[in-house]
Design goal:
This protein is α+β, with helices and mostly antiparallel strands and about 100 residues long. It has one domain. It has helices at about 40-45, 50-65, 70-100, and strands spanning about 15, 25, 35-40, 50.
Amino acid sequence: MSNPDATSVNDWKVERLEGEYFRFRVGSKSRPGRTHFVDLEEDKWSGRCDCERFVFVVGVERRAGKKAECRHIRVAREACKDWLWSDVAPMIAKQMNQKNTIQ
């Protein structure tokens, strides 16, 4: 069964900001050409977005103690996972392998 809230990174324009590990620009689906700034570190790693849904719905729900996020945060988190696995994990593995050969 498919999840109606599931979001594929491939369906969105996502750009990690240069020199930033957890900050992204995510394209708007409702307004082509517009992007939203997403910071995954904010709100104790729950993320924050500058889209209207976050400002008027998600933020209110979070202040009421509910877990909530907009699709832009979800997409940025998926993009971050992809980046971590493709770029960071090999660097860590290489360092671990070097450490094991030295011992």
